Amino acid sequence: MKSNLLFNFSVNKENKTINIQREFNANLELVWKAWTEPELLNQWWAPKPYHIVTKTLDLEIGGMWLYAMVSPENEKTWCKADYKGIEINKLLSWLDAFCDENGNENTIKPRSLWTNIFTEKNDITLVDVTLKHDKLEDIETLIKMGFKEGFGMALLNLDQLLLTKNKKQ
Amino acid sequence: MKLRRDIFQAISDPTRRAILVLLTSQSMTAGAIAENFDAARPTISKHIQILNECDLVDANQQGREIYYELKVEKMKEIDKWLEQFRAIWENRFNQLDNLLETLKNKNNEE
């Protein structure tokens, strides 16, 4: 069934947004929990081979989710989300940042304003994620940073395909 | 800036992304590409045309057939720009799928 679940990914350069829509084979309450409870977020938020450890999560407007992104070499990068909007089982919005272990933000990375909207239909929950940025260049910076941090593992397959393709020419 | 705009346009559509993936393994005619989709042949041709205009695929005449081929260097631009980011999300959400399954099974047992 998984393959039938919607996954859209798009960039809107006029609005300087990245939009991701994804369906999940679970009801709204469960998906909401997975996005808001630290012990659940810890199990899925980090792309492999990273994992995250949540230090604090204060689910209220003005509250903060503070966590460390941990590399396979056990290097920690602290990140936070400042909650801006919360409507239970419906909307979750935050401003992200890199920071120190106490949540003091730094300016390494442009901040993204996340708006996550949750809707359910027939036991399938759609999450609509929008990341809004001040400048189009911010998106480029984010992607370059992803490279630097070694998030590229999942792309090895594409790299190999391109390599094979190169050889043929 | 022009290059960037073109790339965004090219991969903003799921069908066009799927065509690019198809072309990573071999060059194909428009007809062969269209066989992989439910959409009408002219719709697919339009997508191929856009990819061509965005400089992501080359059209090569071979006898009576036109074969479309991926322009690898341009694909790498996309790779750098966005697939990276998309892959992170794919990975993340697959993990969430697994977690949700586990949670559902647990709820059923209780």
Automatic annotation (TrEMBL), chain A:
<feature type="domain" description="Activator of Hsp90 ATPase homologue 1/2-like C-terminal">
    <location>
        <begin position="25"/>
        <end position="162"/>
    </location>
</feature>
<comment type="similarity">
    <text>Belongs to the AHA1 family.</text>
</comment>
<dbReference type="InterPro" id="IPR023393">
    <property type="entry name" value="START-like_dom_sf"/>
</dbReference>
<dbReference type="Pfam" id="PF08327">
    <property type="entry name" value="AHSA1"/>
</dbReference>
<protein>
    <submittedName>
        <fullName>ATPase</fullName>
    </submittedName>
</protein>
<dbReference type="InterPro" id="IPR013538">
    <property type="entry name" value="ASHA1/2-like_C"/>
</dbReference>
From TrEMBL, chain B:
<protein>
    <submittedName>
        <fullName>ArsR family transcriptional regulator</fullName>
    </submittedName>
</protein>
<keyword id="KW-0238">DNA-binding</keyword>
<dbReference type="Pfam" id="PF01022">
    <property type="entry name" value="HTH_5"/>
</dbReference>
<keyword id="KW-0804">Transcription</keyword>
<keyword id="KW-0805">Transcription regulation</keyword>
<dbReference type="GO" id="GO:0003700">
    <property type="term" value="F:DNA-binding transcription factor activity"/>
</dbReference>
<dbReference type="InterPro" id="IPR011991">
    <property type="entry name" value="ArsR-like_HTH"/>
</dbReference>
<dbReference type="InterPro" id="IPR001845">
    <property type="entry name" value="HTH_ArsR_DNA-bd_dom"/>
</dbReference>
<dbReference type="InterPro" id="IPR036388">
    <property type="entry name" value="WH-like_DNA-bd_sf"/>
</dbReference>
<dbReference type="GO" id="GO:0003677">
    <property type="term" value="F:DNA binding"/>
</dbReference>
<feature type="domain" description="HTH arsR-type">
    <location>
        <begin position="1"/>
        <end position="90"/>
    </location>
</feature>
<dbReference type="InterPro" id="IPR051081">
    <property type="entry name" value="HTH_MetalResp_TranReg"/>
</dbReference>
<dbReference type="InterPro" id="IPR036390">
    <property type="entry name" value="WH_DNA-bd_sf"/>
</dbReference>
